[in-house]
Amino acid sequence: MSSSFLNVQGLRKTFGGHLVVLDDINFEMQAGERVVVIGPSGSGKSTLLRCVMGLEKIDSGRIELEGTPYIEANANRRKDNFVDIAVRNKVGMVFQHYTLFPHLTVLGNLILAPMRARGEARASATDRAMQLLRRLGLEAKAGAFPGMLSGGQKQRVAIARALLLDPKIMLFDEVTSALDPELVTEVEGVMLELAEQKMSMMIVTHDMWFAKRIATRVIFSANGRIVEDCPPAKMFSSPSEPRTADFLKKVLHVETIS
Amino acid sequence: MNISAALGFLWEYRQALLIGLGNTLYFTALGLLVGLVIGFVVSVVRTAGHPLLKLVATGYVEVFRGTPMLIQLFWFFFCLPALLGVELGNVFSTILTLSLYMGAISSESFRAALKAIGTEQRDACIALGLPGRVSVPYVILPQTVMRAVPTLLSNCVTLFKESALVSTVGMADLMYQGQMIADSTARPIEILTATALIYFIIAFATTRIVTFYEQGYLARMRL
Prior knowledge:
The structure holds two protein chains of two kinds. By secondary structure, chain A is an alpha/beta fold. Chain A has one domain: 3-Layer(aba) Sandwich (Rossmann fold). In chain A, 36% of the residues lie in helices and 25% in strands. Chain A has helices spanning 45-53, 85-88, 106-117, 122-135, 151-163, 181-196, 208-214, 232-237, 242-252, and strands at 6-15, 19-29, 34-38, 60-65, 68-72, 82-83, 91-94, 169-173, 200-204, 217-222, 225-230. In chain A, the strands form two sheets. Chain A has a six-stranded mixed β-sheet with strand order 7-8-9-3-10-11, sandwiched between helices. Chain A has a five-stranded antiparallel β-sheet with strand order 2-1-4-5-6. The longest helix of chain A has 16 residues, at 181-196. Chain B contains eight helices and no strands. Chain B has one domain (3-222): MetI-like (MetI-like fold), CATH 1.10.3720. By secondary structure, chain B is mostly helical. Chain B has helices at 3-12, 14-48, 51-66, 69-84, 89-127, 132-162, 174-185, 188-221. Chains A and B meet through strand 7 and helix 3 of A and helix 5 and helix 6 of B.
């Protein structure tokens, strides 16, 4: 048992056994932390989030939330990990491509899981959903289908859908990468609001300015390993690893950001 | 040829033709209903089933898509009863053939639609903690059906037209009635043309509905 909030131990993930995507990842996270994962494409950032969500079969290692292991590589069963679904359901995730259900209205998207998977009454789920939509300024869109919304609106609905399940931790996988630049701020605004409410988050992003603004901690990963793990102030001003400095120089076109 | 005389002649036989049309629609509807259920189940098995089941399902689809429906019908009407030693009757053989044929062609439509849904929707279901008993009926099935509807409707049109073959095992469908009237009155031109027209009008209307649905509903949904 560990006292940390999220604990990833010895996580290894390969595709087909030879292509190593994550190689012995170990890290712990405390409640209320906002960990931003940065790194070059193909460094395994998104895969790490997908493993924490339980979307990927892992080769070895285990992941615990609040001291309870909920994902564990299972040597006996070739196909699946051990997954404690009740614990995994405390993890929420938002994806790059929204993944809203196109045949359901905004409200329908929000209340499906509370009603059908958690047995909440329609009236109560609708009530909570409408409150949340109001908070996010999406009340007027409750009856709209996702196809009628802008990218920024879709992504805010996706965040609302995940939040309605009261997650202990939220995972954001490049949630602004598919958006037009002018729509990015409305989504980042929602995330900053969550930060104020001390939501625990893991965020994969290419937006270094946003990373610096929202993170309490930044992890730089490359080639499936964690290269550097430190507070944003240090990461963006004086990284200790040359690889980190090299990467930041490339993405920022300057030595450091202040 | 005198048009009004021809129409008058057809009018006399309207009852028989209507009975035939009713039977055609009845067989098509039954084949459709059973066939769509088979088609959906088979497509799910072929997409995500056990390897052995997958093999069986694929074999079934290939055999029924790759052989003429007339032979399938004869096989179920003549050969299967002989092998089993039980009389199946032409009604049962007809419905069995139409259902299995529809199952095979519609499973391909469902399979394409299932593929189009993609892994992202499945990821979303896991991330929302939706178990299969929720995700299949509320997420996967409706999207599959909506996407598959255009091709399924053209499958229906195919089944509707192909069902004319059941007249060969003595089912009193539209084709059978038309043929009987043509034979007994020796006026095949009027009656067969009229029969063809009836098939055409229904098939054409259905294809119009497909276009309407694609342009209206699907476009609005941006599926």
